[in-house]
Write a structure and sequence with these properties.
Blueprint lengths: L1 E3 L5 H12 L3 E2 L23 H15 L4 E5 L7 H14 L5 E5 L2 H4 L1 H9 L8 H28 L7 H14 L5 H15 L12 E6 L1 H5 L7 H7 L3 E4 L3 H12 L4 H4 L15 H10 L7 E7 L3 H17 L3 E6 L5 H18 L1
Parallel strand pairs: 1-2, 1-3, 3-4, 5-6, 5-7, 7-8
Length: 357
């Protein structure tokens, strides 16, 4: 069995190490650059969102490299991701990619026993459960450590004498992680990057704009899906935070198994979006509603074209912006997206925030 999975930012880098540690033959999915030119990209239904189209290309390329099994998380609710696996299988089968599929639905829907049965089917019978558990725990903490490093860089970028130093540091860390052969080596790489971060020259007299980045989780986790917006914002000397991440998603999904997401239903913003409409849009709306209280001067929402939950959430965001005077900018990405237009809109938004001071 040769396993692969769709790529999503740092998660794919960590998965490679996880499968190395557990002895599973893993085919690393191809980078997304140039996916729009691949024949499989045009096989996706026109109204499907960008993540689906990227997944389709990645999985066909992985098949060509010898992969025969797809491991993929799924979701409940009205978000189209709940239909991704069936539709991907249908299209890939027609294109001659007859994968075996291991679908990791949320435990709250299929039960923990069935979830574990599917999860453990990825591993050989000679792989002990303790080894898998240790690797899974290390994976979570590595993702969390990398995300903490990135968050630290993004919050300090506006104070760097040369703002681009932060983006370079993250890119260098990611590149080294793609070559790591164990979790010990990976944690050392992140530790060295953290040490380097503390030595980037800063100018604490600066007063950078501070915003929060929110929106659809894939767009926030996979740089190609948002045309590297995090680097763009940092390089402009703007400080920012993200409201969702892969480690947050892992905690949130695990909490759902035990019915622990009442706090999500009671989050700020419930007045504007009281119902679950798919994805994590209630969190997006809650983030916008409480952004000023958290000390942010503005909000940037990002999403792929056709993302129904975030489109509905956008209407609620407009209402919040109108009633509370919160500055928001929404950016929609698809395969036709060019960088120049987004850069112009970001620059104008940040200039406006500075003038409002």
């Amino acid at each position: 069995m040769k396993v692969t999975c769709p790529s999503i930012g740092i998660g794919t880098i960590v998965l490679r190490i996880f499968f190395l540690e557990t002895g599973v033959d893993f085919v690393v999915p191809a980078l997304n650059e140039g996916a729009e030119e691949h024949e499989a990209f045009n096989e996706a239904p026109e109204d499907m969102c960008l993540p689906f189209k990227l997944f389709l290309v990645q999985l066909e390329k992985a098949w060509e490299k010898g992969a025969d099994t797809v491991v993929m998380p799924s979701s409940k609710g009205p978000c189209r991701m709940g239909e991704f696996c069936e539709l991907l299988k249908s299209i890939l089968d027609k294109r001659g990619c007859s994968y075996k599929w291991i679908i990791l639905d949320v435990p709250s829907e299929i039960g923990m026993r069935e979830f574990m049965r599917r999860f453990l089917s990825m591993f050989g019978k000679d792989v002990k459960l303790g080894r898998i558990v240790r690797a899974a725990r290390s994976s979570y903490y590595l993702i969390k450590r990398v995300e903490r490093l990135e968050a630290d860089v993004r919050l300090k970028a506006g104070y760097f004498k040369e703002p681009r130093e932060g983006s370079r540091l993250i890119a260098e860390c990611h590149k080294e992680l793609t070559k790591a052969d164990s979790f010990d080596e990976a944690f050392d790489i992140v530790g060295r990057a953290k040490w380097k971060l503390g030595r980037i020259p800063k100018d604490l007299s600066k007063r950078p704009v501070k915003i929060i980045l929110t929106g659809e989780i894939f767009s926030q986790s996979e740089p190609y899906a948002s045309r590297g917006i995090e680097d763009r914002i940092s390089d402009m000397g703007v400080c920012f935070e993200k409201d969702v991440s892969l480690s947050w998603w892992m905690r949130f999904t695990a909490a759902g198994r035990f019915g622990l997401w009442a706090s999500e239903r009671l989050a700020p913003g419930r007045k504007y979006l009281p119902y679950n409409i798919g994805g994590y849009t209630r969190r997006t709306v809650a983030t916008v509603d409480s952004s000023r209280d958290m000390g942010f001067e503005g909000v940037v929402q990002i999403m792929p074209a056709g993302c129904m939950p975030e489109i509905v959430g956008h209407a609620a965001i407009d209402k919040i912006s109108e009633e509370k005077g919160i500055n928001t900018l929404s950016l929609v990405y698809d395969e036709m997206s060019g960088e120049a237009g987004y850069m112009t809109r970001l620059e104008a938004f940040f200039d406006m925030l500075e003038r409002k001071r």
